[in-house]
Amino acid sequence: MIIRKSGIVFFSLLGLVQAASTKECLLSHATYREPRSGAILQFRPINNEPAALTTEVFSLAVPNTAISLAADITWTNGKNSFPLGTIRHTCTDDDREAGLEDGSGLCRVWEGQVYALTGGGAEQLNSREATPAPKGLLLPEFGATFTEWPDFAQANPNGSAWDAFALTGCSDE
Question: Which residues contact 147 (CB under 8 A, 6 or more apart)?
Fold first, then answer.
C-alpha cells in the first residue's frame, strides 16, 4: 500500500516537473531543426532590435557551411495582422538586380507567414512577447526556396528541405 501511494506521488510529481519544463521554454529561447536538410533555427531574446513590430529574432544555420543567416518575425499592421517571417543573407550584385534587397541592407532568402505546429495542427503564432515555444514551426514554401538558394545548393548538392521544423531544445540565455 505504501509503495503504491509512493509510486502515485512520484508519477504525479514527475508529471508536474515535465509540465513545468515544457512551459518554461519560451519561443525566444527555442531551437528548431528541419529534419531533411538539418537546418537549425536558433531563437534569441530581443535586445534593442530596430523594428517596432518585431516580436522574435532568430538565426538559421545552413547545413554543411559556417553560414548563419539573420532572421526575424514581425507582425503586419491592421485588424487581421499576422506573423511574417523573413530570413536574410548578405546581398550579391545579382540579388540587388533582382530586387531582393530590403530595408535592412540584406537580401531575402525566404519570406512568409509563420505558423505554430501543435498537437492539433497548425495555428497562428501568439503575438505576446513571452510566447511558449510550440512543438514545431511551419514556414510555407521554405523548403523549395531554401533548396534552390545557391549557398545551400552548393554545400548540399543532393540536399532538400521541408517546410516544418521540430523543437529540439531550449537555451538558458
Answer: 37, 153, 159, 160, 161
